Amino acid sequence: MVHKQAVFDHLTGRWRDLFNISYDVLLYDLTSAYFEADPPFPEGDKRRFGYSRDHRPDCVQIVIALVVTPEGLPLAYEVLPGNTADKTTLRGFLERIERQYGKARRVWLMDRGVPTEEVLAEMRAADPPVHYLVGTPKGRLTRLEKHLVARPWQEARPGVLVKLLAQEGELYVLAQSRDRVAKERAMRRRQLKRLWARLKQLSTMQLTREELLMKLGAARDQSRIAWRLAVIEVAADCATFSYRLDRDKLRQARSREGRYLLRTNLVEEDPAKLWSHYLLLVAVEEAFKNLKGDLAIRPIFHQLEARVEAHVFIAFLAYCLHVTLARRLHALAPGLTPRSVLEKFAAVQMIDVHLPTTDGRELVLTRYTEPEPDLSLLLTKLTLDLPAQPPPKITAGRMPPIPL
């Protein structure tokens, strides 16, 4: 992997030349990819058990850190041990990007859990300051709630209201999205309805206490949001239980649905712009979705670390081609996705036609099949031309067997 950094440097120039990309705003996030392998592994191996974003805690994994632009164009990645904590990864990437792109005014967008207080303080103290916009854990919203209650709501954009709170060189933005409120409220109601139906069903069943506890555990896994709003008490000596709705928790949940607390050192920015920036995190989530979906980066079956690194590197290069195709389609054939285009191109096949000659030799014609009319139209839209058919090849005559 000695050329990995050279590839990152090359991508920087290519994205700028092809799509006129600037690097003023960068998105950073992490994901995991699991293995079909049997531990234990040697000391220093990156395959480790850890928090699985694939919901496969039974498998060892690696963690992949990725930096992309708001347009979804990847700039760099790193493969980390599977038990790496998100908050320990950011400092190294900040230094790498600074070396590669200089100390320009740059905004980092990150989800909650990635930066630590120490790293954020370093970003504020840097010269020039490194700007950031990050989500915050709900615990901080609880601590700041009394300060935010008195603040007036402002309309950042249609359907989005914000409250602003400046504190110690930072700006906290409490954003409430009308669409997100409706979505989260519908999810909560659906889960509550399902959980209550299941609890009512369990209350009529003849079970042992152990069976009841197992079925309650399964119900919790299926409706985790609703479970936090319920008070369930199981008798200590028999298989009976009671349940009720915790109305205080329900009121608190309703008041926080569709709300996000953002934190930034861009204290003079327009709130509407800050909200738009934060929504750009969808781009890095889309990158991970494509890596795991269309490009099938996981599961990984390799056993040697060098091959694991190569596997991720090839997937990264494939994603670069994938996103380049998406940008080209957006400009020349709107409405089509890379997946639909690749499915159409899969109909074109390469075949070898073998024709014997009268002198005992063999003529080999390598040909691709003619594209269907809809594929021909797509090629025209994308301004692509199929290459000329390869020239024929002829094999030498078979050598007669040598007598022993």
Task: Spell out the blueprint of helices and strands.
Blueprint: H1 4-19, E1 25-34, E2 61-68, E3 74-81, H2 90-101, E4 107-110, H3 117-125, E5 131-135, H4 138-149, E6 154-157, E7 160-167, E8 170-177, H5 178-203, H6 209-222, H7 224-227, E9 230-234, E10 241-245, H8 247-256, E11 259-264, H9 271-279, H10 282-292, H11 305-332, H12 338-345, E12 350-356, E13 362-368, H13 373-381, E14 393-395
Parallel strand pairs: 1-4, 4-5
Antiparallel strand pairs: 1-2, 2-3, 5-11, 6-7, 7-8, 8-11, 9-10, 12-13, 13-14
Helix pairs in contact: 5-6
**CATH-defined architecture of the domain at 4-111 and 281-332:** 2-Layer Sandwich
Main β-sheet: number of strands, strand sense, barrel status?
Answer: 9 strands, mixed
What is the alpha-carbon Rg in Å? Answer: 28 Å
Specify the helix fraction band: 40-55%
Low-confidence stretches: none
Task: Estimate the mean pLDDT confidence.
Answer: 87
Q: Total strand count, please?
A: 14
With helices defined by DSSP (H or I, 4 residues minimum), what is the helix count? 13
